[in-house]
């Protein structure tokens, strides 16, 4: 894989990280977390809610983590947290590694803010009706994967939004896969709903990666969630950043490396202070500011160098592999081949610099803001196509030696009329449903979207609502109403 940093770069970057953690530290609005880091040697000002980390404390932490066998972490990281997009997990394998295609995306926890109506070609804030349509679609498209909390509901108060989403999933999905927890006050109500629905999955109330409000500020709601995440023993210490270079992070690549690394180490130290055995993961989704338009870009080369070099530096400093993201956060405003190939380009660039191919996409456009069913179908098709890059089967049937000798020089026949081709062409050749392998023409995009919309309508028409005990739905509604009275 490609490398970016030179050996001489490591010392000044490391010193920058040590200085930031020692002089600035972090703001944290959670007394339990402040107490935990104080116990490992941090200097804590409880009145200002600031923890500073002396250099020796940081060096000891880095030294300890670097010696750990990271391969054993994989045994401790469970379920969906092994998907890069959901935790930043990157397998600890030596390059050159055998290529492994990423998983095929499903409607799990994309949590888009907007819903793109592919037929009307318009974007709108997500609502309950749109979420129900997503549930029906996913229920038919990938029944084995189930459906999770993949859309924000703008017509519901944020205080109870995960509870409303939980009720809809249990009512409409044959395999409901859980919801995002935004506020820890929602947790007891969610657990009550899970008990009513007889759900045993500890990840049904899902906790996403944690991030500072860059630079180095951790608000109460986020820090409360991180404390629970770290102590639960269900999750790795999964962190992330979506800071924007030139806005809430230095405009230079080197400055970004220092601030991001300081943030990751500070959060990991907090997690280890609360749970000494917790594995460490994370992903970096740094953006950059277009100073001419004011637009934030999560796709360009200037953004990529920040992500990739920070991941490389963190790995060399601590031994921890974090992900520079997946192909998902593209600039495209509309679903289609352009958006899909934009994502694929980003994912392949990440693979070239990390040795690990991340997911191409999970159905978003507009830098992760908007979920599109058409885009999900295209992203799934590309991810499935990547399986053809995995190691081929080498055996007697696939070598086809007798057929090779029989065809000979191809004077009287070719491989098209052989029994071997007839037996194997379905498994040996990529046959995409939507990508036109004959080449892209001027009108091909319009034809493609028409075909995809027909497929979406066909799948939704095949949906059949699960038979759920009405008494369960009634009890769940009562829990939601109780939460509405108490939380709003």
Automatic annotation (TrEMBL):
<dbReference type="GO" id="GO:0008168">
    <property type="term" value="F:methyltransferase activity"/>
</dbReference>
<dbReference type="InterPro" id="IPR010426">
    <property type="entry name" value="MTTB_MeTrfase"/>
</dbReference>
<dbReference type="GO" id="GO:0015948">
    <property type="term" value="P:methanogenesis"/>
</dbReference>
<dbReference type="GO" id="GO:0032259">
    <property type="term" value="P:methylation"/>
</dbReference>
<comment type="similarity">
    <text>Belongs to the trimethylamine methyltransferase family.</text>
</comment>
<dbReference type="InterPro" id="IPR038601">
    <property type="entry name" value="MttB-like_sf"/>
</dbReference>
<keyword id="KW-0808">Transferase</keyword>
<keyword id="KW-0489">Methyltransferase</keyword>
<dbReference type="Pfam" id="PF06253">
    <property type="entry name" value="MTTB"/>
</dbReference>
<protein>
    <recommendedName>
        <fullName>Trimethylamine methyltransferase</fullName>
    </recommendedName>
</protein>
């Amino acid at each position: 894989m490609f490398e970016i940093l030179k050996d001489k770069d490591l010392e000044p970057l490391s010193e920058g990280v040590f200085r930031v953690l020692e002089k600035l530290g972090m703001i944290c609005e959670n007394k339990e977390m402040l107490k935990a880091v104080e116990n490992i040697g941090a200097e804590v000002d409880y009145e200002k809610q600031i923890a500073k980390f002396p250099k020796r404390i940081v060096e000891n932490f880095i030294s300890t983590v670097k010696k750990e066998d990271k391969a054993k972490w994989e045994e401790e990281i469970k379920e969906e947290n092994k998907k890069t997009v959901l935790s930043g997990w990157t397998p600890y394998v030596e390059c050159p590694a055998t290529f492994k295609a990423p998983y095929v995306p499903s409607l799990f926890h994309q949590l888009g803010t907007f819903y793109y109506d592919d037929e009307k070609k318009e974007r709108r804030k997500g609502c309950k009706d749109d979420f129900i349509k997503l549930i029906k679609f996913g229920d038919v498209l990938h029944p084995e994967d189930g459906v999770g909390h993949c859309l924000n509901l703008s017509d519901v108060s944020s205080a109870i939004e995960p509870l409303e989403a939980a009720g809809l999933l249990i009512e409409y999905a044959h395999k409901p896969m859980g919801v995002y927890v935004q506020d820890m006050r929602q947790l007891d109500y969610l657990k009550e709903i899970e008990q009513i629905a007889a759900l045993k999955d500890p990840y049904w109330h899902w906790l996403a990666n944690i991030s500072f409000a860059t630079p180095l500020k951790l608000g109460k709601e986020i820090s409360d969630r991180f404390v629970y995440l770290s102590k639960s023993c269900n999750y790795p210490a999964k962190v992330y950043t979506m800071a924007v270079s030139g806005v809430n992070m230095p405009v230079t690549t080197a400055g970004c490396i220092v601030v991001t690394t300081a943030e990751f180490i500070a959060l990991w130290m907090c997690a280890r202070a609360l749970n000494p055995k917790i594995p460490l993961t994370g992903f970096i989704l740094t953006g950059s500011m277009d100073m001419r338009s004011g637009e934030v870009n999560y796709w360009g080369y200037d953004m990529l160098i920040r992500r990739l070099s920070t991941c490389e530096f963190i790995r060399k400093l601590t031994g921890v592999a974090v992900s520079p993201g997946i192909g998902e956060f593209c600039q495209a405003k509309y679903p289609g081949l352009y958006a899909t190939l934009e994502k694929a380009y980003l994912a392949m660039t990440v693979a070239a610099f990390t040795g690990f191919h991340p997911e191409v996409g999970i159905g978003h456009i507009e830098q992760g803001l908007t979920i599109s069913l058409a885009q999900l179908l295209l992203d799934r098709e590309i991810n499935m196509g990547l399986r053809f890059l995995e190691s081929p089967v080498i055996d007697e049937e696939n070598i086809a030696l007798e057929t090779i000798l029989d065809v000979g020089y191809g004077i009287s026949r070719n491989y098209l009329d052989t029994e071997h081709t007839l037996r194997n062409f379905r498994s040996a050749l990529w046959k995409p449903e939507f990508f036109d392998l004959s080449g892209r023409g001027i009108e091909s995009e319009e034809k493609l979207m028409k075909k995809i919309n027909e497929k979406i309508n066909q799948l939704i028409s095949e949906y059949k609502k699960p038979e759920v005990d009405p008494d369960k739905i009634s009890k769940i509604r009562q829990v939601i109403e109780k939460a509405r009275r108490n939380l709003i």
